Amino acid sequence: MRYDPDGCEGPARNNGVNRVNGEEKTPSVHDYDDPAWGPLPVRPAALRWLLLLPLTLVFLPLWWVVWVFLAACFYCVAPVAELIVYMVPRAENGAIRMLDATLGRVPFVPLWCVTPVALAREGDTAYYRARVDRRVEKQTQSVETSRHRREYHRDLELGAHYFRGAGAGYVLRVASERGWNLHPVLRSHPRLRLRLRHNGRPRPDFRN
Question: What is the pLDDT of residue 29?
Fold first, then answer.
């Protein structure tokens, strides 16, 4: 299912939301089973415990220091960007894309790190799928019961470490059934992160 920025289901505009192998691509239903959108390769247990775990413990805190420093720099520039957007409303999407192209390329948890879940559950497809199901359902209920209908309340971002055992295609399949589609401005990548936005419509009740 493709996302139309106007909030309707239909052909998506070519806005550069996604890139796979350097090419822009928005997955359709038939692309969900494409290998590029499938689960990430399972890293051997020895690699996770003997190499990646020590590297994570040593370098991840330093990575977070750099991330916080960059975030603080952008926070200082934010008032200027807000002034420009206020004077030139059409520049809003450009400012968002610029932020995404800079700080958005520095994930808070890099893909090479190992999380406690990865140490214990990597390769367990059923666990990762259940994890995705719970997260999407919880976020969907939050959107549908919220009194606020502003766009940022309808956004959901998942890093690859969250769905690596299920695959980006599975996330899109489950999310699209609950009113989620790829974000119309922020880019997604099946091996890095998914940015989703809810259409804001309540789910139909088929019990009546």
Answer: 45
Q: What does the alpha-carbon distance between residue 1 and residue 26 come to, in Å, rounded to a whole number?
A: 9
Which of the pair, 144 or 93, is modelled with greater confidence?
144
Question: Is pLDDT larger for residue 13 or for residue 169?
Answer: 169
Token pair belonging to 135: 């997260």
The tokens for 90 are 């059409």
Dihedral-angle region of residue 65 (phi above 0 means left; psi in -120 to 50 means alpha; beta otherwise): alpha
Cα-to-chain-centroid distance, residue 47: 26
- Distance set, CA 30 to CA 26, 35, 147, 172 (Å): 11, 12, 35, 12
Q: Which residues contact 38 (CB under 8 A, 6 or more apart)?
A: 167, 168, 169
Alpha-carbon separation of residue 204 from 29, 116, 174 (angstroms): 21, 38, 16
Beta bridge partners of 159: 193
Judge whether 36 and 29 are in contact, CB under 8 Å.
no
Question: What span, in angstroms and rounded, lies between the C-alpha atoms of 144 and 114?
Answer: 33
